[in-house]
Amino acid sequence: MTSEKMNQGELAPDFNLPDIDGNMYKLSDQKGKKVYIKYWASWCPICLAGLSEIDELSKTSEDYEIVTVVSPGHNGEKNKEDFIKWFKSLNYKNMKVLVDESGKFIEDYGIRSTPTNVIVGSDGVLVKVAPGQLNKETLDQIYKEVQ
Known about the structure:
Mean pLDDT: 94
Oligomer: single chain
Strand order of the largest sheet: 5-4-3-6-7
């Protein structure tokens, strides 16, 4: 397998975060897959409005993998226990929610607003960090261009 870069840019900062069930997810282990990372918060109405679409996309998307990241205790987010209890009560079954208690993800990716979208190519290159809400059509269009 070649480690040649296909996309313009630097490698995405690696992270190794637990999901809400304690399973670890490491970005660098996803090489060969395009990854969409959505940073969001429980207090963000725009984020909440998009959760059902993200949950559905998580089940049906074949072109790119979807993970979401929240940062309990940072930027007004609930603490970890309260967040997990709250999120599980929503009954979304497909979306992977990673927990960044350190705030390192926010720092490494320069997150300034919620929601923020992170586009990573199959070569591990950080293609784009875009604030705001992206719908399925926009994401599909972006990932057509991403290697």
